Amino acid sequence: MNATFAIAGATFGEAVRKRILMVILLVALLIILISPAFEPFAAGRGARTLIISFGFGVIQLAGTFIAIIMCTGMIPTEIERRTIYTILSKPVQRYQFVLGKFFGAVGTLAFMYLMMGIVFLIASRLALGSFDPQIVKGLIMFFFQSSLLAAVVLFFSTFVSPLVNYFLSGGVFLMGNLLSSFLETIQRNPDVHPITRIPVQLLTVVLPNFANFNVQNPIINPEQVLTDEVAYLVQTIAYAIVYMALLIVASMLIFNQREM
Amino acid sequence: MSDLAIKTVNLTKRYSGLWSKQPVDAVKNLNLEVHRGEIFGFLGPNGAGKTTTIKVLLGIIYPTDGEAYVLGKPAGDPKNHHKISYLPENPYFYDYMTGREILTFYARLFGIAEPQRSKRVNELLERVGLSRAADQPLRTYSKGMQQRIGLAQCLLNDPELLILDEPTAGLDPIAHIDIRDMILDLRNQGKTLFISSHQLSDVERVCDRVAILNRGVMVQLGRIEELLAGGHVELIADKVPDNAVEPIKQLGGKVSLHDGRLIVEQPDNGTVDRVIDIVRSAGGHIISVKPYRRTLEDLFVETIQGGKNA
Ligand SMILES: Nc1ncnc2c1ncn2[C@@H]1O[C@H](COP(=O)(O)OP(=O)(O)O)[C@@H](O)[C@H]1O
Ligand SMILES: [Mg+2]
């Protein structure tokens, strides 16, 4: 286990030294910080919605880019620079390497979300005069969304090149965000032939559902009532953890066969 | 417990060619046996398959065919890696880390816990002479300093077997001597060393046995003294009368006499005494007697060129 955490630590150390990731973080922090300036554009209730949805939008976008950019190269770079040779010559199982990389990625995301979350809370407090606990829930959900995306990217990185990975994981992220509502729409329409419906159903089940994490919808539209919010959050987080575990196990199996 | 540190049985590694490229057998039917406590030189020109063999031994790649064992266990079992260390061909380390950080990182991979860990890291920084540069990032290190960090990480776990891939490539002669001294030191501690090299330096001369690999095939194997046997002795004498030539010629070897100057090349040390006796009793003067040893370079070049012509 020590080896896994050593690798996770090194992964975190390298990620936070990556200029592109730091630029994304800093830009996101800056935008969140100045977002209260938009307040005059909306009045009363509208201002709250605007600031919160805008902040979440920025955080989600930054989290998505950070997850994809950080994880596409994570394993391929180790192979290309051959730093992995020395690591695998130590008493390190290949699965520990994969797990260490994943923990490092999640740790980096946690750090990024913490920074963005703190700034978001401060900015919204200044603008709205009170702390909104919904913001914390939203941050947690988006953090799990980004972590799940990181697992998807890491999984693809064990067998495709970084360039292909950008498109694959970008595509999976988009589909995973849109498929469930698309499926709902066509299920409501009796004219849709099963030949169309079944593949969509299948894809919706197989691909990770990223839409569940987009909690800004109920927060921003309070009229959309969730019967049991806690159960929903717990369920969604459990879904993320199970799905990530499956992806990481699959990554380990593929990586175990790999030649370097 | 097996007395072999490394054993391969008909080891073959084929890289399947991508797209237009032909598949290459980087290593073909290699049978190696390296004994415990031995310094084994694994020699061959660039592209011979040395690194490929080492990668199989470490489990970084898998054999296409045949088997490989390290310290009596199938190659590549990470549980065995507590007893092994590896110096990569080039310093493939995280260059944003400092010398101390990278050693600490590898020590953690070895499972060495604090407070032992810091102590060991400091000891090794001292031992390779990098205490002062310990807190600079590796990217500011010279090639020689990076190699020393590489050696330090090899010693973290007090290994039984050290696998050094081209330890002297690109280093200056003083660094060669440092590395040779360290190798001798390790030999005295009873360690097994497996050293690959494409160029011959002082380091290869300390090997007990060498194998020469060419295009994936082992073309020579043996103790250095045996492989280098077959030198000759050259004798030069002056004022040697013509009638002395016949008895000397009967002893064999190359003989030439011109204007009283005799040059004899004798393959065998034993008969040189007889030549000297004949020359002196015939009234000649011995000018010099020089043994010419075959060098590792000679052997290397002969072997590789022989392979090319074949
Ligand atoms: N990953 C690889 N894919 C394809 N061919 C390779 C690969 N690695 C090495 N080779 C080829 O295998 C042969 C042996 O290489 P290598 O083991 O690195 O030689 P050496 O270490 O003796 O210089 C060379 O012809 C090299 O081009
Ligand atoms: Mg090599």
Write the layout of secondary structure elements.
The complex is a heterodimer of chains A (260) and B (310).
Chain A: H1 2-15, H2 19-34, H3 45-72, H4 74-80, H5 83-88, H6 94-128, H7 133-157, H8 162-188, H9 194-206, H10 216-220, H11 229-257
Helix pairs in contact in A: 1-6, 2-3, 2-6, 3-6, 3-7, 6-7, 6-11, 7-8, 7-11, 8-9
Chain B: E1 4-15, E2 24-35, E3 39-43, H1 50-58, E4 65-70, E5 73-74, E6 84-87, H2 99-109, H3 116-127, H4 143-155, E7 161-165, H5 173-188, E8 192-197, H6 202-205, E9 209-214, E10 217-223, H7 224-227, E11 232-238, H8 245-250, E12 254-258, E13 261-266, H9 272-281, E14 285-292, H10 296-309
Parallel strand pairs in B: 3-8, 3-9, 6-7, 7-8
Antiparallel strand pairs in B: 1-2, 1-4, 4-5, 9-10, 11-13, 11-14, 12-13
The structure holds adenosine-5'-diphosphate (ADP) and magnesium ion.
Q: What does it look like?
A:
The complex is a heterodimer of chains A (about 260) and B (about 300). Chain A has helices at about 1-15, 20-35, 45-70, 75-80, 85-90, 95-130, 135-155, 160-190, 195-205, 215-220, 230-255. Chain A has about 260 residues and is an all-alpha fold. Chain A has one domain (about 1-255). In chain A, helix 3 (about 45-70) packs parallel to helix 7 (about 135-155), helix 7 (about 135-155) packs parallel to helix 11 (about 230-255) and helix 8 (about 160-190) packs across helix 9. Chain B has two domains: about 5-225, Rossmann fold (3-Layer(aba) Sandwich); about 230-290, 2-Layer Sandwich (Alpha-Beta Plaits). Helix content of chain B is about 30%, strand content about 30%. Chain B has ten helices and 14 strands. Chain B has helices spanning about 50-60, 100-110, 115-125, 145-155, 175-190, 200-205, 225, 245-250, 270-280, 295-310; strands at about 5-15, 25-35, 40-45, 65-70, 75, 85, 160-165, 190-195, 210-215, 215-225, 230-240, 255-260, 260-265, 285-290. In chain B, the strands form three sheets. In chain B, strands 6-7-8-3-9-10 form a six-stranded mixed beta sheet, sandwiched between helices. In chain B, strand 9 (about 210-215) and strand 10 form a beta hairpin. The longest helix of chain B is centred in the middle third of the chain and has 16 residues, at about 175-190. Chain B is elongated, with a radius of gyration of 25 Å. The model of chain B has no long low-confidence stretch (mean pLDDT about 90). Chains A and B meet through helix 1 and helix 5 of A and strand 6 and helix 2 of B. The complex binds adenosine-5'-diphosphate and magnesium ion. Magnesium ion binds next to helix 1 of chain B.
